[in-house]
Amino acid sequence: MELLKPPMVDRRGDNPETSVWWDKLTLAQKFSASSLGKFGYELVCIRNIEGEGVAILECNGGVATISAEGEINAGAQIKLRED
Fold first, then answer.
1. Exposed/middle/buried for 44, CB within 10 Å: 0-12, 13-18, 19+?
2. Average pLDDT over all residues of the chain
3. For residue 69, what are the CA distances in angstroms to 1, 11, 15, 42?
4. Vertex 75, ends 65 and 43: CA angle to 5°?
5. Are the C-beta atoms of residues 47 and 56 closer than 8 Å to each other?
6. What is the pLDDT of residue 3?
7. Model-wide pTM > 0.90
8. Torsion angle, alpha carbons of 15, 17, 18, 20, to 10
């Protein structure tokens, strides 16, 4: 009997629009998040920082933020809670 290997999952094809947070992003944030998604970043939440919705994305332990204007900060010093 041949053992079946689980199918390989190519996450590069995942659509970021499936995130529950996606509808809460500004149009500029959506463009920036889509570009970061090509590098493996995933939208994990939106935080209200100084009255502005800031998108938080994570990739391999690294964190990036996107301001409401779409400005990306790949060196963000934000500690995320572990579930």
1. middle
2. 83
3. 57, 27, 22, 19
4. 30
5. yes
6. 66
7. no
8. 150
As given in the structure block, the two tokens for residue 19 are: 């995130």
Helix or strand run (H / E) with residue 33: helix 27-37
DSSP readout, 62-83? EEEEE-TT--EETT---PPPP-
pLDDT tens digits, residue range 45-66? 998 888 889 999 999 888 999 9
CA–CA gap between residue 83 and residue 60 (Å, rounded): 16
Q: Which two tokens stand for residue 82?
A: 């572990």
Contact 36, 55 (CB under 8 A): no
Rounded to whole angstroms, how far apart are CA atoms 11 and 64?
A: 19
Residues near 37 by beta carbon (within 8 Å), at least 6 away in sequence: 14, 16, 43
